[in-house]
Specification:
- The chain is of the alpha+beta class and about 700 residues long.
- The protein has three domains: about 10-430, Up-down Bundle (Amino acid/polyamine transporter I), CATH 1.20.1740.10; about 470-615, Mannitol-specific EII, Chain A (3-Layer(aba) Sandwich), CATH 3.40.930.10; about 625-709, Regulator of K+ conductance, C-terminal domain (Alpha-Beta Plaits).
- The protein has 30 helices and ten strands.
- The chain has helices at about 10-20, 25-30, 30-40, 40-50, 55-65, 75-80, 85-110, 120-135, 140-170, 175-180, 190-200, 205-210, 220-250, 255, 260-270, 280-300, 305-310, 330-345, 350-375, 390-410, 410-430, 440-445, 455-465, 475-480, 495-510, 510-525, 585-600, 605-610, 615-620, 690-700, and strands at about 485, 530, 535-540, 550-555, 575-580, 625-630, 655-665, 665-670, 680-685, 705-709.
- It starts with 10 loop residues before the first helix and ends with a strand.
- Residues about 700-709 have low confidence and may be disordered.
- It is a multi-pass membrane protein.
């Protein structure tokens, strides 16, 4: 797939992109403005906003681990509610992100102007072009730059908080009576003012959800996305709450309410252990780093929206073009041009409310999308993280977003309505005739079943295959214990099914005729997967304690017709695979099935398997996701020390497993009491470091024989 992005981002990258996108205007610009609505309790508004975003964060984490694709909210809404909602959500979130990014980059120019006589907007445009170059060379390099920004920023902000708490509690900067005066009035606007302020500063946490727009580029997304988001929210919420409290406690209330650089003003009364004005300089540098990190992360995530929409034909296909560095070149150019346009023609006033309002609307849709996906019963919807307290968490998220939108006022609502109208018109006149899919919502409502888009399940299966196995899935164990039969004389499908049904009737405790009949029905229902030269049968039964696999390798092609109901078989057939699992573990069955398909789709797989005469070789071929090595025990070699000893007596490194032993052309799974004999061939699994340690202990310089597949 040419327009597929590289998976280069780890947990710290997720944390850095999310956290870096949150620390800019929220900390260095908005606290004073937000205090107009609620007074000294503004620090509670920040904490409240962090709590209120939790339901939407849980919903986003669930969907993004099920659908780790570029485009974030656009992709989720398109696949759940259909392409019209995807268009609205994609365009709206794209514009909101670009506005927020432009606002942050203007902040770079504004703070630079404090030290040098430079035009604010020219500095902002130069910074935008620099971020564009970083994005063009790859997400990993962009994220590396981001990690430097975020690490530097967190060090300074933590220092600010520690020094601020010391100044308030022990440094004599303010007395208890003075602190009481600073915190009065506490709730100047009552609860209504607190919620209005929380809605206003809600934009400060939007970076938390930006990470999902680069989900396709994240390694192990089922772990790294939810964990990275949770870590980012905890760290950011603590710094916002404590940092803004320090500003409230130190700066005079009237001055604070009109201050556009409150962190720098607070720092001027702190950091007594540094030279004069060093604290102000330090916080100004931190602000520059914060605005730069937000601008960098904003351009990275925003550019993935036109890329994903171009890939799905909702925008011109040129947006999905990927350059030599594996980045969406045209989408980055297009996004950069828009951000520069916003910098040149727009003022900063009102941007925060506009971005917050539309994002809250998107959160309503995303919370509803989780309900839609769960109710659709699509088997291949397999999130690695499940939102807690479903569906109450999603209902709470929807209600919270509605309430905050109301508190933000009519102008942002009208702007949001305008973006919705733009999305509807664009879809009607440009995309409707190019897109034939529908969302998961049509899989939920039976009355809409005639519009159900069957390819959605195929797409989710493809995503499931790309995600791979989940930790704990016993695929390797199932391969190791699998039953392999090799037919060297002519055979037909009836012989294959009889052989497999005989074996499974004993293992499952069920009648042979019933098992065979179920496999034949699967052929008639087109439920058997057909690959070139391969048939894959799969089924679930009750009372199955562990997965089971059986593989038939026919040296000659199977005789007779394969009774598929509505499609041709990819003949000639030489390989038949059977995968059985418990009906209580349908998701695990799907993951193991997609892993098996991934292996058997590889070029020349049939020729490779037909050339093998050993069950061990076939099983090793199916263990291609592991580091493994085959070792033959011979006298006169360094590994001869193993001969004649029980396996439990052999000192093996941690995380190394002797999975198979081939002896006299027969393969079996050993146990601790198995005595190793001369000419045994051992299949040893483990990570590369453990296998290297094994070689140093028993095989010396023969380490080059290791297969790293």
């Amino acid at each position: 797939m040419r327009n597929k992005l590289k998976k280069e981002l780890g947990l710290f990258d997720v944390f850095a992109i999310s956290t870096g996108a949150m620390f800019s205007s929220g900390f260095f610009l908005l606290p004073g403005i937000a205090s107009h609505y609620t007074g000294a309790s503004v620090f509670l508004a920040y904490i409240l906003a962090g709590v209120l975003i939790l339901p939407s964060m849980f919903s986003i984490a669930e969907i993004s681990t099920a659908l780790p694709r570029s485009g974030g909210a656009y992709f989720f809404l398109d696949r759940s509610l259909g392409p019209l909602m995807g268009t609205i959500g994609g365009l709206g979130t794209y514009f909101a992100l670009m506005l927020k990014t432009a606002f942050a980059i203007i902040g770079i120019g504004a703070y630079a102007a404090l030290f040098w006589e430079v035009p604010t907007k020219i500095v902002a445009i130069v910074a935008t072009l620099l971020f564009m170059i970083l994005n063009l060379v790859g997400a990993k390099k962009t994220s590396a730059f981001q990690k430097v920004f975020v690490t530097f920023l967190l060090v300074i902000l933590i220092t600010f908080i520690v020094d601020g708490i010391y100044s308030i509690c022990c440094g004599g900067t303010i007395t208890k009576q003075g602190l009481d005066a600073q915190l009065t009035p506490f709730l100047s606007g009552g609860l209504s003012g607190l919620f209005t302020s929380a809605g206003f500063v809600f934009v400060s946490y939007l970076g938390l959800t930006q990470i999902v727009s680069v989900a396709e580029e994240i390694k192990n997304p089922e772990r790294n996305i939810p964990l990275g988001m949770i870590l980012s929210l905890v760290v950011t919420g603590l710094i916002y709450g404590l940092g803004v409290f320090i500003m409230v406690a130190i700066i005079e209330p009237e001055a604070f309410a009109n201050e556009l650089a409150p962190a720098a003003v607070a720092a001027s009364q702190m950091f007594k252990w540094l030279p004069e004005n060093a604290g102000v300089l330090l916080m100004s540098i931190a602000a520059l780093a914060a605005f730069a990190s937000t601008g960098n992360a904003g351009l990275l995530s925003a550019s993935r929206y036109p890329f994903a929409m171009g890939r799905d034909k909702l925008l011109p296909a040129i947006m999905a073009r990927i350059g030599g560095k594996g980045t969406p070149v045209m989408a980055i150019f297009f996004t950069t041009a828009f951000i520069i346009l916003f910098i040149l023609v727009l003022s900063e006033e009102g941007i925060v409310k506009l971005a917050s309002t539309f994002q809250l609307l998107i959160f309503i849709f995303i919370n509803f999308s989780v309900i839609v996906f769960r109710k659709s019963k699509i088997a291949s919807y397999d999130p690695g993280y499940l939102s807690p307290l479903y569906p109450y968490m999603q209902v709470i998220g929807i209600v919270i977003s509605f309430i905050l939108i109301i508190y933000l006022g009519w102008m942002p609502i009208l702007f949001t309505a305008g973006i919705v109208l733009l999305g509807v018109l664009w879809y009607h006149f440009h995309a409707r005739d190019k897109v034939k899919r529908e969302g998961a919502i049509f899989h939920w409502f039976a009355l809409l079943g005639k519009y159900q888009y069957d390819e959605l399940e195929n797409e989710l299966m493809t995503i499931l295959k790309e995600k791979g196995l989940r930790q704990g899935d016993p695929f390797d164990e199932t391969v190791i214990k699998s039953k392999i039969s090799m037919f060297k004389t002519p055979a037909d499908l009836d012989r294959v099914l009889n052989k497999v049904s005989d074996y499974l009737s004993v293992e499952l405790g069920k009648r042979k005729e019933a098992i065979k009949k179920r496999f034949l029905h699967a052929l008639n229902d087109d439920a058997v997967i057909s690959l070139p030269g391969v048939l894959i049968f799969h089924a679930t039964y009750d009372d199955v304690l562990h997965p089971s696999m059986q593989i038939i390798v026919s040296k000659q092609e199977l005789d007779g017709e394969i009774p598929f109901k509505s499609r041709a078989v990819k003949a000639p057939i030489h390989i038949c695979c059977f995968l059985i699992n418990s009906d209580e573990k349908p998701k695990q069955q799907l993951r193991m099935l997609t892993r098996l398909i991934d292996i058997l789709e590889r070029p020349d797989v049939v020729d490779a398997l037909l050339a093998m005469d050993s069950h061990r070789e076939i099983k090793e071929y199916l263990l291609q996701n592991e580091n493994f090595v085959s070792v033959k025990l011979l006298e006169g070699t360094t590994q001869s020390a193993m001969i004649g000893r029980q396996l439990m007596e052999v000192s093996l490194p941690k995380d190394v497993l002797v999975a198979l032993i081939e002896r006299n052309n027969k393969t079996f799974t050993p146990n601790g009491s198995t005595v190793l004999q001369e000419n045994d061939i051992l299949t040893i699994l483990g990570d590369s470091k453990s296998i290297s340690k094994l070689f140093k202990g028993y095989m010396g310089a023969e380490i080059e024989n290791m297969q790293d597949i």
